[in-house]
Amino acid sequence: MATSNVSFAPRRSTVGRTAAGLLALSYPLVMVVMALAVGSRRPGDLQDFAASFVAALMFVIALPTTWFLSFDFIEVSRTTVVLFGLVTSLPLWYVVGTALAVRVETWGRWLQYYVTIAIAWTLANLVILAVVAALGSS
């Protein structure tokens, strides 16, 4: 008779839900800092314009709810966009972090899934932007 190492005891996760949720905020916060830091130190040239464009693009990708402010009839400032994006999307990223913490057992696995989600989110947004640009140019 063969024996197996199957256990029906509940698994113990070493990943804290609150800590995982707070750590999940790192991706959008880093993107916000990058977007706000571009062009704030000196007068701009063509490279600063390109960097500002890329930073704004990454900001929009990191904060999924910032798309709401892209309508022409909404008159907003840079500060309004940043605050609206942070207030509405940080809870979404927090939920992603806590949901991952419930599903994994170790921090290594949590980080692996989190990086995968962040990369997938970024790539999906870039594809959407490419499709919209292709439709707009035709």
Write a short abstract of this structure.
With 138 residues, this protein is mainly α. It contains five helices and no strands.
Account of the 3D structure:
By secondary structure, the protein is mainly α. The chain is 68% helix and 0% strand. It has 5 helices and no strands.
Quick tags:
68% helix; 0% strand; 138 residues; elongated; mainly alpha
Main beta-sheet annotation: none
> What portion of the residues fall into strands of 2 or more residues?
under 5%
Instruction: Please identify the structural class as seen in this structure.
Output: mainly alpha
Question: Which stretches of 5+ consecutive residues score pLDDT under 50?
Answer: none
Note the overall shape. Answer: elongated
Instruction: Give a count of the beta strands, DSSP E runs of length 2 or more.
Output: 0
Q: Could you give the distance between the termini?
A: 69 Å
Total of helices: 5
Q: Spell out the helices and strands N to C.
A: HHHHH
Estimated radius of gyration: 20 Å
The residue-averaged pLDDT reads 76
The percentage helix is 55-70%
Question: How do the strands and helices of this protein lay out in sequence?
Answer:
Layout: H1 17-24, H2 26-37, H3 46-62, H4 78-103, H5 107-137
Helix pairs in contact: 1-4, 2-3, 4-5
